[in-house]
Design goal:
By secondary structure, the chain is mainly alpha-helical. 67% of the residues lie in helices and 0% in strands. It starts with 8 loop residues before the first helix and ends with a helix. The C terminus is likely disordered.
Length: 266
């Protein structure tokens, strides 16, 4: 600690490995439950959708060539809903182990710097849940295709891909930005409200949304003549501003985490 008071990769790797090993059972159960839930939802959607596309004589209701799976748009909604739900729940649990006294003592007495402690938690509650969700979702989708493609070969059943033209793949940057903003908001909320992070942060988000809605209704934007498109200066400015807000939120969560640690030590 004395030679590298802020960050030491060797010390950080050891602490990250320690926390990952300690929580692998819990995380494995979460992934299993997530996978099972997604698989059940996809199978229910397929069972209730595919048979309705056939006429009584066994022919497909829509005679046009099918280049996309009929339930891809439904899966698109399931993907977004479950993605944001998982991201919010995991991001808000940044300090979940600090609610109990023994875990708080262990957290504060670990020989790592505050930044290493925060970075380990950030990795385990921001990027890793996203990777786990994508793996579980596409694994469940692959099982759906393997089961139903031989049964309904005329429907063009295929794997779900967010970047396909039918699913407006150009919206991927906007989905990523919305996901980053939403999870960062709950990440910061988890540092301010460790005990009931999701509930308390959602209440704050509700009042903040009402406040900004009143502002938008107060001011008129009819003076903007050019439409918003991918190359609009207004849209580029908004995107840069929001990504800067995400970075600021990460920094604020680290500062809040460090302040909590100092207060608890005192």
């Amino acid at each position: 600690m004395s030679n590298h008071p802020f960050f030491s990769f060797r010390r950080f790797a050891a602490y990250f490995s320690k926390r990952f090993i300690e929580q692998w059972r819990t995380n494995a159960i979460r992934c299993l439950l997530l996978f099972a839930g997604l698989l059940i939802v996809m199978i229910l959607i397929a069972v209730t959708t595919y048979p309705d596309l056939y006429l009584e004589n066994g022919t497909v209701y829509d005679e046009s060539d099918r280049t996309e799976d009929p339930i891809h748009m439904t899966e698109y909604g399931v993907f977004l809903l479950s993605l944001f739900a998982v991201g919010i729940l995991m991001a808000s649990q940044l300090l979940h182990d600090g609610r109990r006294k023994p875990a708080r003592i262990a957290m504060l007495t670990t020989p790592v710097s505050p930044f290493e402690n925060w970075l380990t938690r950030w990795l385990m509650h921001m990027p890793l849940p996203l990777v786990a969700f994508l793996v579980c979702f596409h694994a469940a989708d692959a099982i759906r295709v393997a089961v139903f493609a031989p049964i309904y070969p005329e429907l063009g059943i295929s794997l779900f891909w967010l970047g396909s033209d039918a699913l407006t793949g150009t919206t991927i940057p906007y989905i990523a930005l919305a996901y980053a903003c939403c999870t960062t908001f709950y990440l910061v909320g988890g540092t301010f409200f460790p005990r009931r992070a999701v509930l308390a942060t959602s209440v704050v988000a509700l009042f903040a949304g009402l406040y900004f809605a009143l502002i938008l209704m107060t001011f008129s934007f009819d003076t903007v003549k050019s439409p918003y498109n991918d190359y609009s200066p207004q849209l580029v400015f908004i995107q840069v501003y929001l990504w800067a807000t995400v970075l600021l939120g990460w920094w604020l969560s680290y500062r809040r985490f460090r302040e909590l640690e100092v207060i608890d030590r005192i």
